[in-house]
Amino acid sequence: MTSYIGTATSRVDGRAKVTGEARYAGEFKAIRLAHAAVVESAIPKGRISRIDTGAARRVAGVLDVLTHENRPRMADTDKAWKDDVAPEDGSPFRPLYDDRIMFSGQPIALVLGEDWETARYAASLVDIQYDKQDFVTDLRQQHDQAFVVEKPDKPHGDADKAFAAASVRHEAEYYIPTEHHNPMELFASTVVWDGGGKLTVYDKTQGVQNVQRYLCSVFDKAPDDLRVISPYVGGAFGAGLRPQYQVVLATLGALALRRSVRLVLTRQQMYGLGYRPATIERLALGASANGTLDALTHEAIAVTSQFEEFSRNDTGWAALLYKSTNANYVHKLARLDLPTSSDMRAPGAATGVYALECAMDELAIALKLDPVELRLRCYSDRDQNEDLPYTSKALRECYRQGAEAFGWKARKAEPRSMRDGSDLVGWGMATGVWEALQMPMAVRIVLGANGHAEVFCAASDIGTGTYTIMAQVAADALGLPIDNITIRLGDSTLPQAPVEGGSWMAASTAHAIAATAEEIRGELLALAKRIKDSPLADARPEDVALADGRLVSKLDASRAISIADAMRSGAIERIEKEKTNTFAEDKKHARNTHSAVFAEVKVDEQLGVIRVTRVVSAVAAGRILNAKTAHSQIMGSVVWGIGMALHEETVFDHRFGRIMNANIAEYHVPVNADVHDIKVIFVDEPDDLVNPMGIKGLGEIGIVGVAAAIANAVYHATGKRIRDLPITLDKVMR
Ligand code: MOS
Q1: pTM metric for this prediction
Q2: Closest protein CA for atom 4 of ligand 1
Q3: Whose CA is nearest to atom 3 of ligand 1?
């Protein structure tokens, strides 16, 4: 019956995106639209002793300047400022709330003008005097002040003792610097004032209903008076999970002016939002000479702000991959005078697995074992944190197919032993792991007698291809051509959906569509039975399917009624159903995706320049809904992994607590010239335990392990082990 699921279907929103028909948060029009510009703090910590907005106000075209002294009312309790994504301990950031400065780049005034250039110019005239306080922004200076946070990983045995007694040991510290998301689309909000005090908020976000609830609680609005819309998102990668400050400021502006306001952050200001926290990771691995692990210790120290405890699980992944008789995990947080750190693609895993997989490479070298062979000897068929088997785990097959596609068996073990002309050649590999999550959510389907269907839900498509896979699943479930399906997303008034994150949206939407389509089919069958001499008079609901615009008996394909005829029998033009997905509770299995990443680098020995010439990523992630968008997901992740390994670093001047490269000229990300041959393999992984359709999600798995595979390849090429990311040419030359 399936005809679209699994195929390489092009993006249904592709045309809208390339023609500019797709609108983003900063592009929606409004009558008498005012434009806002943010004034940021020049210091990282202290109080505003005086803020003089007089000169800014005197600029022609300036409508108002908002500060903590004159802004409209906002909620006072931390509870009112908590959004769905961040139930972390602490006190969420409140822009323009009071005179306190908690990080450099903090918004401290909002200039509202008739046009953007005027507002921006006037923002430069706001005069601020500060009472400065001592601050620290360097993790290296603060890590001994770090405090332990509880994580679900479960230590067992005595890892220290076993490590001391192990015949082969590897112990080292790895460092991942602060990184920023840098989506192409700038964070923006257009708040439309409709005259009656109702607001329509166009926002760049990964979750419109999260933003809607948050704004209603911050501004004490009734749910019906504030609607949040975000049909398209130009990349977010976790930066749009929590409501960002621009949506609060744009709303404040609209309330102050009683007219519509747009605020688009500058690229520089985007560095004042969340970031992947700088992290110190210590690994201590003790092995027997045969390559089994006796001791595994993973300690991580990650950055958070002074006012919230954001942390994700860096240390828990080792127990999902490798058996060790003794294991210990410690996760700590260090407070710095920075904004709160945030989710960024595969949070916790991208960093923690980088360190783990470099350490495993170093252990393989100490054991004189092939790195793939070491992983197979330590391979775990159980999640050792929970002592559970997996719903499925085709990681062995990832290693096998990845190695074969890469040509791994031709690798010479000795570093510096492979060359291409004057270049040193290095081959490295690593494992990736992520979670297979699914969330409750609803969709509404409206099926017309003409065989066209609209599918509605509040979910966002953050560029991952949600529109497209939803259209595929709906087309198959309703038995209609994909062109007859319209997907409507990104509106808080639509059926309930979680934020789009955690790689859970594919499984969640697909099962919500399947559940709703089943209701539609049931209603069509009831209508079909009312037709005189109906060929489906005796058909049971489970024995009929929707195909080619008809309700068809699965037992006898000659028994069928068209959708149009069924609706005509009830004198109706459309059927509308809304249903929430349900997943059977399964506490007996762990649910994860896995990958094996193989990388080739070529290093210019004289200049230290590193090129990642080949990557093979073999991914096991259950059923692949769309061969084309899935391939793009993993390609994009591998490219980002190249950036993480070689380019990305938010550079601070810790004397001033300021970011020195808050722009994409100096914050380096891979460009086309950095990206060479990337091969993506999806390993077959049937799984009817994870959920009925066997979907695990792909948003995050693709980046995990990539930086480690490249770092390991750089070692293999050069004989130099560089543990601090990014691996820049100065470190290779040193
Ligand atoms: Mo993702 S970091 O859950 O947007």
Answers
A1: 0.97
A2: 238
A3: 501
